[in-house]
Specification:
Length: 350
């Protein structure tokens, strides 16, 4: 596994590709996969190292190669002080129009570094109370009835399950889960429904079966249909594919009840925090999601979790080969480490 080392001025950036192995083949409306490519980063300043990560599920259009190409262009020699965070991350953002996961890998490493320099975890720097962390949902991908029953049993510690819908198996998925458990569910349709009347009928059917909210029911381009469904639905809707970055929050207001924030979509912790605060100010619900990621990116996202309504931070629980320890889930609840920065340590390290 090849590590690239780039020294620019007072900063040293290191990065290497890594491949996450999923515990189960994961199927959503967009397709199936059993691995996820990630890139692990380290940003060093004055002998202190911050850790970061880019996760690249294929539908986001990034890869080991595209992240490496992006990081090869990063030159921090114009910066002397890591606390000039706004300027540094504005520089990173303008290097390319997209590459949001690559950008997040630098943002997370920089935040970890800053937290270590301040000797505080980010939830404290942001002023959040660890007692307010939510329960995380555990995701059940689309599968056969036997596998769904098995996955639901494996998810015993979790208080809320997230069900992937959007194919022609939606009712089977829910009915199968209801044979095994009466826990609250949330449903992620991943833009799988195409007609709003069908969506509303399903929203009622799901609400009657204990589904508490709906994620991205219809394609994000169908703005009027999603807004109509939100207006009429008995349960709240959350925009995910429709909400990538800070400027999308205002556009989602009036179209969805809430937004799903993910570090890999929005370039990292700085913008994620801004999105959560803006959505709150607009009276919207806030959900915090993730990709399949190691405990590095998951623990970074979790710093924001005390301020959100719903969390789906199961990314590191779905893989076999995590490298870090950080955020943990105890009886389904997100537990934030008190360690400075994003709160991780290498597996096997005290
Ligand atoms: Mg989603």
């Amino acid at each position: 596994m090849q590590t690239t080392l780039r020294k620019s001025g007072k900063f040293t950036l290191r990065y290497r590709p890594y491949t996450l192995e999923l515990r189960h083949v994961f199927t959503i409306a967009a397709g199936s996969r059993s691995t996820t490519p990630v890139v692990l980063t380290e940003l060093e300043y004055d002998g202190v190292v911050g850790y970061g990560e880019a996760s690249m599920p294929p539908y986001l259009g990034e890869s080991h190669e595209s992240v490496r190409t992006f990081l090869d262009r990063v030159d921090l020699s114009g910066f002397n002080d890591p606390f000039h965070t706004a300027d540094m991350l504005a520089y990173i953002d303008q290097l390319a129009p997209k590459n949001t996961a690559a950008k997040a890998s630098v943002d997370i490493a920089l935040h970890d570094l800053l937290g270590k320099l301040m000797n505080q975890p980010w939830h404290r720097i942001w002023g959040y109370n660890t007692a307010d962390t939510p329960h995380t949902s555990f995701t059940i991908g689309i599968d056969t009835a036997d596998m769904v029953r098995q996955k639901v049993r494996e998810a015993a510690p979790y208080k809320i399950l997230k069900v992937k819908l959007g194919l022609d198996t939606d009712k089977m998925m829910i009915e199968t889960i209801r044979e095994v458990t009466d826990k609250p569910l949330c449903a992620d349709v991943n833009q799988g429904w195409k007609r709003r009347e069908e969506g509303l009928e399903m929203a009622h059917w799901l609400a009657e079966r204990g589904v508490i909210f709906l994620e991205q029911p219809m394609p994000k381009e169908q703005v009027d249909d999603n807004a109509w469904l939100t207006e009429n639905s008995p349960i709240p809707t959350v925009g995910d594919e429709a909400v990538q970055r800070l400027h999308d929050v205002r556009k989602a207001h009036g179209v969805y009840s809430g937004i799903n924030i993910k570090l890999m979509k929005c370039t990292g912790m700085r913008e994620a925090h801004q999105m959560a605060e803006l959505a709150r100010a607009l009276g919207m619900k806030v959900m915090l999601g993730c990709m399949t990621e190691t405990s590095c990116a998951i623990s970074a996202a979790a710093q924001l979790s005390p301020v959100v309504d719903w969390a789906d931070l199961d990314g590191a629980l779905l893989i076999n080969n995590d490298l870090y320890r950080g955020m943990e889930v105890v009886d389904g609840k997100v537990m934030l480490p008190r360690t400075p920065g994003i709160g991780i340590r290498l597996m096997g390290q005290k």
